[in-house]
Design brief:
The chain contains 27 helices and 12 strands. It is mainly α. The chain has a domain of 190 residues. A two-stranded antiparallel ribbon has the order 1-2. The protein is globular.
């Protein structure tokens, strides 16, 4: 018996489940190493394929896209780029599911049939199911068996979730596995499996203890799954009871977590709209929650009170409640007199606010125009990435709930745009969650600093352009368009947006009833930041395009923003030999603001016109301004014929 056979036997006899995926991965690596040392390369290759099975992401949310490394519901865990001999770059994925062969899927099927550990068996089964390469994968008997195995595994996770304890993430594994079982049954219309699953989801939702950790997420997930398949579920469950349970959860959450109550109400609104039931009472409750947030924020001198009051007012106007409209209009006007140009959401103690204001006024008084701009480069208002990582780890240790919520990120339309299941993904979410906290506090400080510097006449369009003209933004870049050389300067496309920014501020401070218009400013500066990154890549010799094969033709396309952000990293994981000297603090800030789904994701929102006019906030303007100034700090030197950047 070789090392692989011994290890597969160990898995069969083990109690391994979803939480042990990292252990399985590490142990497979040791098996591969041993086989290679014994000269058994062929068996080692098979062992590595086995290892990959447990790292492949499996989800019905994944849409087929070979160019993005996705086939049906199978996708990679890590991605990057690879430089070919001709200098062009192509996407790199691990595991690369697009390269699996017919033989590989037949092996997955064999492992599925032989495997005795339920978790491992379903992992192989999902490879066969989503791969759709074997004859068995198309048979309903196979799908029915896999569905029931996933259903059974989800019940085991549910039992383990009920035991509680620190770092008990089984509630996440429970729903993820249940969702997979439901997907298999729904896609093939398997009965009685589909009916059994819907009834189980309903009963679990109704019986869930709303006072225990994880209440918010699981209530939303379970009721959301029923709502997403309303046509099927409505025949089998009483949605009125689903709404009542969510409302019960909302009232419990309101005691400690008002935002949680808001999310539960939003879920109920979506359900009632599908039932053609009026949602006036739910909207009124939602408005009252915004009022509660507004008064709490006002009492803590938090600028967020303006946004909360405005949201409450808009809802009262929508459902036409004259008394509430009149009351909120008065309250909103009073708040606007105290706080202007703001949409900060993070609450701050009054002592912190007073201390912060004192430091800002001193910094403005002590600095000239150049010193003011230097503050945007150093960003003293943002903590370091390492400190944020340490804080996110510490917070996850303190509470299981923090490490469990949310399992997904939804956009304002209710679409799930990202999901976090594995430990790495949850660590990633915890980091972005902590980064958001830091970002909101830091941006609030930077917003106030910007305004005070402007009022002191130490920050203006003239002073900014004067500074930028001395940076690489003002250097000529020669482009070749259809054989014709064209000189371009990055600064030329920045000027209109920056000019408009200061014109709007001039108008506002001349007449405080003036309504600032930030739409064109944010739209312009967001895309110009991406342009600056492309210029930056050109300066240091990183390709801004990538190739892809279409039949026998080799096509060229511009890299996406995510690709550019990955490429400029100083020492990227998949290319550790690369040295760009790009400040990682800058890169993460840009990623959070422009491209991260857990962040502002401004590039996507602007490009696809996903923002309503009231979402164009002055905070966005200030952050984009800061990023532009940060990007201007770099200088470039030639070393042995290659251009490299160094930060000033």
């Amino acid at each position: 018996m070789n090392a692989l056979e011994k290890y597969l036997k160990k898995i069969d006899e083990s109690s391994y489940d979803c939480k042990d995926v990292h252990t399985i991965n590490s142990e497979f690596q040791l098996v591969c190493k041993q086989l290679l040392e014994e000269g058994k390369q062929d068996i080692a290759a098979i062992a590595d394929i086995d290892r990959q099975v447990f790292s492949v992401q499996k989800s019905f949310d994944k849409k087929p896209d070979n160019e993005k490394g996705i086939i049906n519901g199978l996708s990679w865990q890590m991605s990057g780029t690879e430089t070919l001999e001709d200098g062009s770059q192509v996407p790199l994925y691990w595991p690369d599911v697009t390269k699996y062969t017919q033989q590989d899927f037949e092996y997955f099927e064999k492992r599925y049939n032989d495997c005795k550990n339920l978790y491992a068996k379903t992992e192989y089964g999902l490879m066969v199911y989503f791969g759709e390469k074997t004859a068995t994968s198309r048979h309903n008997d196979f799908k029915r068996q896999l569905c029931n195995e996933l259903f059974q595994l989800s019940k085991e996770y549910h039992d383990k979730a009920n035991k509680g304890g620190e770092k008990n993430h089984y509630v996440l594994y429970f729903f993820h596995t249940l969702r997979l079982a439901f997907g298999v049954a729904e896609k093939s219309n398997l009965e009685p499996e589909l009916t059994n699953l819907i009834q189980y989801i309903f009963e679990t939702h109704q019986n869930w203890d709303i006072t225990k950790d994880g209440t918010l997420r699981i209530l939303l997930d379970l009721s959301g799954l029923l709502s997403d398949y309303f046509g099927l579920s409505n025949k089998l469950v009483d949605f009125q009871k689903v709404v009542y349970k969510n409302l019960e959860g909302a009232k419990e959450l309101e005691k400690t977590y008002v935002w949680g109550a808001m999310y539960a109400i939003d879920r109920n609104i979506a359900i009632e709209q599908k039932r053609n039931i009026p949602v006036t009472d739910l909207l009124k409750y939602k408005a009252s929650l915004y009022e509660k947030l507004a008064t709490d924020a006002e009492n803590k001198s938090n600028l967020a009170c303006v946004s909360f009051a405005e949201n409450a007012l808009r809802i009262y106007q929508q459902i036409k409640l004259p008394d509430d409209i009149s009351r909120l209009e008065k309250y909103y006007s009073e708040l606007r007199g105290k706080f202007r140009l703001s949409e900060i959401r993070q609450e701050l103690p009054k002592e912190h606010v007073d201390n912060m204001n004192e430091r800002i006024l001193k910094a403005v008084a002590d600095n000239n125009e150049r010193g003011i701009i230097h503050h945007f480069i150093t960003s003293p208002w943002y903590d370091t990435i390492q400190n944020i990582k340490d804080r996110s780890i510490e917070l996850s240790k303190q509470t299981v709930l923090l490490s469990m919520l949310p399992t997904s990120i939804m956009d304002k339309f209710g679409n799930t745009v990202d999901v976090f299941y594995t430990d790495e993904e949850k660590e990633k979410f915890n980091f972005w969650n902590s980064y958001t906290f830091n970002f909101q506090i830091g941006t609030q400080t930077m917003h106030r600093f910007f305004i005070e510097a402007y009022k002191a006449k130490k920050l203006s369009y003239a002073s900014v352009i004067s500074y930028l003209e001395g940076t690489w933004f003002n250097e000529v870049i020669v482009r070749n368009y259809h054989g014709q050389a064209v000189d371009v300067k990055p600064i030329d496309t920045l000027k209109p947006g920056l000019r408009r920014l200061f014109e709007e501020l001039d108008s506002f401070f001349a007449d405080n009833t003036y309504q600032c218009e930030f739409v064109t400013i944010i739209d312009s500066l967001t895309l110009k930041v991406e342009g600056l990154l492309r210029y930056f890549c050109e300066k240091i010799g990183i390709a801004t395009f990538k190739t892809r094969q279409k039949g026998s033709d080799k096509l060229v396309m511009e890299k996406l923003l995510d690709d550019l952000l990955a490429d400029i990293a100083h020492e990227p994981p998949l290319k550790p030999e690369q040295k760009t000297n790009f400040d990682e603090e800058d890169r993460i800030l840009i990623k959070y603001v422009l491209a991260e789904k857990a962040g502002l994701n401004l590039r996507n929102a602007v490009a696809h016109s996903l923002m309503d006019v009231f979402e164009y906030s002055f905070e966005h303007v200030v952050v984009l301004f800061c990023i532009i100034i940060k990007l201007s700090k770099y200088k470039f030197i030639e070393t042995k014929g290659d251009s490299h950047d160094i930060s000033s």
